Amino acid sequence: MRIEEIDKNFVPASIGDLQLHYLEVGAGSLMPRGLAWYEQDKQFCRLPQAALSSLSEGVQGLAWHTAGAQLRFKSDCLHLALQVELRGPSNMPHMPASGQSGFDLYLGSGRDKQYVKTAIPPYGADKFEQLLFSQSQAEMQEFTLNFPLYNGVKQLRLGFSPGAELCAASPQAVKNPVLFYGSSITQGGCASRPGNAYPQLLAQQLDFQCLNLGFSGNAKGEPRMAELIAGLDLAALVLDYDHNAPTPEHLEQTHYPFYSLIRARQPQLPIIMMSMPDVDLKLEAANVRRYIIEQSYKKAVAEGDKNVYMIDGFKLFGKSYRDACTVDGVHPNDLGFQRMAECLQPCLARVLRVEA
Amino acid sequence: MRIEEIDKNFVPASIGDLQLHYLEVGAGSLMPRGLAWYEQDKQFCRLPQAALSSLSEGVQGLAWHTAGAQLRFKSDCLHLALQVELRGPSNMPHMPASGQSGFDLYLGSGRDKQYVKTAIPPYGADKFEQLLFSQSQAEMQEFTLNFPLYNGVKQLRLGFSPGAELCAASPQAVKNPVLFYGSSITQGGCASRPGNAYPQLLAQQLDFQCLNLGFSGNAKGEPRMAELIAGLDLAALVLDYDHNAPTPEHLEQTHYPFYSLIRARQPQLPIIMMSMPDVDLKLEAANVRRYIIEQSYKKAVAEGDKNVYMIDGFKLFGKSYRDACTVDGVHPNDLGFQRMAECLQPCLARVLRVEA
To answer: Which residue in A212, A220, A355, B13 has the most C-beta neighbors within 10 A?
Structure first.
């Protein structure tokens, strides 16, 4: 029994007989954001092509996942649709295809954006098309489309109703992007749709461009990664780097050096360190790791760093319904991600000098 | 690329060489709860076998989904595993297999339960086995295992370490079950795991047995369904019946009669009516439907009913991060479900006469 046969709420809208004009994403007003090296490489990849071979095999593969990528534009189109070819079908048992491979659309500008729709690939599909938006009278609106969190995009085309205008979106409240470096949790595992991963929630709430460098299982704090990050012009850096260090010793040997390499090249960059959120089922191990991160933080402060901050992972999930925050004891669900965003928001707003 | 190959956090625990003794679920201390007619029919079905043919085809199929079913027992086992044959593989694009077809385990008694693990079928599988729990010294503990929300269970066996004791769980705080009648939202679409559907969250927080009669796309307020509900000995009834009425007229013609049929046979039963939560994208339609439900409620009160309550669906998702509460504009994710549970909890606690 396929659920969409008996519950009409599960049937995706069909494009039917609509006449649409398709544009390839990757030029003009359809340049993706959230991919720091897109302008240079013209690839839907989170890392520069020239650097891939200098990173681990895991990072090389995961760099093609489009977590954090967005399209932002204005249009008065009557209809908007997308056609996409993904790098593969969805295959994760505890993250729905909507989060792994879906696109979610918001309308509006600044902080006044409203979620509208999620384009979700049918079960098992790696190509699909979907109508995302319709209005009855041409009105100029601002669109924000989030890319898949745990899949890659081979080709993406947007379909506009004939005669629609298309132009650049309004500037964001924060000029430079905010970069998040970390594990599967940073990458967005296991949000139900891209906009609900915690970096995207924060990007929406505080209106900044998010660079998501979350590498599921592969955030090992490599110096090469720190160099790449240090070369970017950022508004802030969140180091959600804890989980994937294979041992506490590895974490200890890499955490401060990772920070330090970036700090040496970016003396003014606000850096927020955090420890992992899912502590309850492995309290002892989480304590050891939090201590290591705290030592990094304290050392940085002792050395006179006035722009380093620490978020205690034990506080990320809050108090009530804490138990309901993960799908599997490790990966946050949308509740866990909302709690993380809420916890980080005041600190991030402060360093970005915007209203919380 | 399968994610479990590159992120070890995604690899399910293997049962390996463990010697386990498997028991068939459905007898003795392994009698499922949350299936009101199990003792009579010995079927993992949410409705009585004799009544199935008198209900719609959709309800007949969905009755086999095990939303709300639970196993509760005490054991001092060193290891616990499950072997299950489901009615089909997972196939929903916006609900992960963990929620559709998974089992989640809690340890502890009363309100002091802690989430431990989710047994998740591998991608595409309709049979699987998984180790759920291990401890190094035999200690008697209370186990609560939630069944899949959007799949059926053909056969379920639990594996215990040899020599383990097995006995009945402690009684729950509320003697009779609480029944939830409604749509896909009631059934738990789209929670990331069974314990995170809003009826299960409430059952855990207030310690009651939950009867989940959510029928995705098929909660049409049929008199036959009202009769079945009216025949049960309940502590409270939540009528989350709104979404699936094909038109406002259908809702108007069935909502009060549905309530009224149950009230005639259950003069003392607390009945909580609620309107749907996902109102923002279709405000006008939601207003019409809320008005109809409010009229039912007001009519009941005017007739002297002192045990009927109304929850305003517009308030279910709260205020902050409201936009992040659904996966698709219709179905709540874990954040939406937590907000719903939080909103309902005071009212439900009051009618059940337990602490909120």
So the answer is: A212
Cα separation, B316 vs B92, in Å, equals 25
Residue type at A304 in one-letter notation? G
Which residues does chain B have within 8 Å of residue A242's beta carbon, measured at their own beta carbons?
none
Q: Which run of H or of E encompasses B264?
A: helix B248-265
The token duo for B187 is 């059934």
Take residue B24 and report the two structure tokens written for it.
């068939």
Q: Are B161 and B21 in contact (CB under 8 A)?
A: yes
Could you give the ipTM of this predicted complex? 0.93
Is B143 within 8 Å of B72 (Cβ atoms)?
yes
- Contacts with A278 (C-beta within 8 Å, 6 or more apart), sequence order: A185, A286, A317, A325, A326, A329, A330, A331, A332, A336
Number of other CB atoms surrounding residue A302 within 10 Å: 8
Distance CA A180, CA A213 (A): 6
* Residue A92, min C-alpha distance to chain B (Å): 7
pLDDT at B12 over 50: no
Sorting pLDDT into bands at 50, 70 and 90, what band is B7? low
Which residues have C-beta within 8 Å of that of residue B195, sequence separation ≥ 6? A324, B104, B106, B115, B146, B201, B204
Nearest chain A Cα to B89, which residue?
A: A1
Q: By mean pLDDT, which of A209-213, B24-28, B64-68 is the weakest?
A: B24-28
User: By C-alpha distance, which of B200, B156, B174, B172 is closest to B67?
Assistant: B200
By the 8 A CB rule, do B64 and B1 touch? no
Angle, helix B248-265 to helix B283-302, in steps of 10 degrees:
30
- Phi/psi at A262 (nearest 5 deg)? -70, -45
Chain B residue with CA closest to A325: the answer is B334
For residue range A317-343, what is the model confidence (pLDDT) as tens digits?
999 999 999 999 999 999 999 999 999
- The token duo for B271 is 């009945």
CB A61 within 8 A of CB A68: no
Q: Minimal Cα–Cα distance from B325 to chain A, Å?
A: 8
User: Residue A345 has which token pair?
Assistant: 């928001």
Residue A15 has pLDDT above 80, yes or no: no
With CB atoms and an 8 Å threshold, state whether A329 touches B117: yes
Burial A76-93 (b: 16+ CB within 10 A, else e): bbbbbbbbbebbebbbbb
Residue matched to tokens 């659904």: B326
Domains along the sequence of chain B with CATH:
3-56+69-168 (2.60.120.260), 178-352 (3.40.50.1110)
d(CA B39, CA B49): 12
Nearest to B98 among A2, A114, A327 (CB): A327
Amino acid at B217: G
Q: Note every long-range contact of A166-169, with CB atoms under 8 Å and residues 24 or more positions apart, other chains counting.
A: A166/A23, A166/A28, A166/A29, A166/A30, A166/A73, A166/A74, A166/A75, A166/A77, A167/A29, A167/A73, A167/A74, A167/A75, A168/A29, A168/A73, A168/A74, A169/A72, A169/A73, A169/A74, A169/A109, A169/A142, A169/A143, A169/A144
